[in-house]
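User: I'm designing a mutation panel for Trimethyllysine dioxygenase, mitochondrial and want to avoid disrupting the core. Could you give me a predicted structure to guide residue selection? Please restate the sequence first so the numbering is unambiguous.

Assistant: Good idea. Sequence first, for numbering, then the predicted structure tokens:
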Amino acid sequence: MWYHRLSQIYCSIQHQLKGGVRHSALQFPCFQNRLLAAHRWQHTALGPLNCVWQQHEDHLELRYAGTVMRFDYVWLRDHCRSASCYNSKTNQRSLDTASVDLGIKPQTIRMNETMLFLTWPDGHVTRYSLEWLLKNSYEGQKQTIQPRILWNAEIYRQAQVLPVDFQSFLETKDGLKEFLQNFLLYGIAFVENVPPTREDTEKLAGRISLIRETIYGRMWNFTSDFSRGDTAYTKLALDRHTDTTYFQEPCGIQVFHCLRHEGTGGRTLLVDGFYAAEKVLQRAPADFDLLSKVPLKHEYIENVGECHNHMIGVGPVLNIYPWNKELYLIRYNNYDRAVINTVPYDVVHRWYAAHRTLTTELRRPENELWIKLKPGKVLFIDNWRVLHGRESFTGYRQLCGCYLTRDDVLSTARFLGLQA
Ligand SMILES: C[N+](C)(C)CCCC[C@H](N)C(=O)O
Ligand SMILES: O=C(O)CCC(=O)C(=O)O
Ligand SMILES: [Fe+2]
């Protein structure tokens, strides 16, 4: 499962951090059997038996805080945090990994209540805190999933997520943190009382990230003048989609600020793509699997005025981390999807069926959140998760905004202590 409810996540994190479960080796029947193995289980000498370990031919096995972890010896040597192997001022490795013997084994292993000590054949000593190992092991990582609240219109409305005030966003750490927490949980967040100018919108963006300059510029201001060869620059309706699917790395975040609209229509549609994908996973797991495996191209070809652009991005609709199956990016844009020539005809047909299943979920009316963007209210959209669209409109409508680099937004969130 790539998705867990928030409470479960917090629970398991707390559980890990506090080392909630402390077992002795003998409480586990399977451990008794393992005692018969060539290498015997060892445990910490003093106090509660909260950690047991066993030295195998090619790895070290550790049971700590209810988790069985297995560490490759080269890995243990490579991650040594001693002053000569790791520069803790720059947080960079100094050790030349290529100089580590791939058959390396520790000469001695020792442990106290909180630390593991390994002495290597050349006498070098590596120390690890058990908490660090737990946090950084493969087995620990498998359990870590970005906390998210998947939503449909009802869930989002019920949550009554408040917009953050412009001043508080710009001037207080709490305002910024609240905003980012909302953004991470829901994939959308609002700032209100923003002066309706491009400069103030830019100021907002600069508070959390670098602006990602693209073929559309840095800050863009657009209206229905067809100044660019794309439907966005018309009055036509746009079905739900994610942007810049034709980049090798689609833009992480999109910022929208409607500066003016004198006319009718033009409401914004938002749909949580991860919510829809989860429904596909539950109802048709084979479709989910296919959507995560079939690579597709998206393409942007523009030859209007001075603008000559030809972009191609390749990747599946659903992108999941291979180690924990967590969904992290959805690429969905039927306008910009290119010719499918990456898979044979029979797979193509199954892919169309899977795409239909996802589209059905994305189009369920109860999953649609419709809002009218107004001057002063700025919307941030996680373009890797939440799809946007718009109703057709009449009259003069001017939108400004920008794309943000995802790395920088997440970096700001982490700096504020959020899990991102
Ligand atoms: C936001 N802004 C008007 C600058 C760009 C519009 C990009 C539209 C494109 N079809 C896509 O979905 O990526
Ligand atoms: O006009 C709008 O509200 C949004 C258009 C759009 O999808 C875009 O600019 O990416
Ligand atoms: Fe768009």
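For picking mutation sites, this is relevant: Residues 153-415 form a domain with the Double-stranded beta-helix fold (CATH 3.60.130.10). The radius of gyration is 26 Å.
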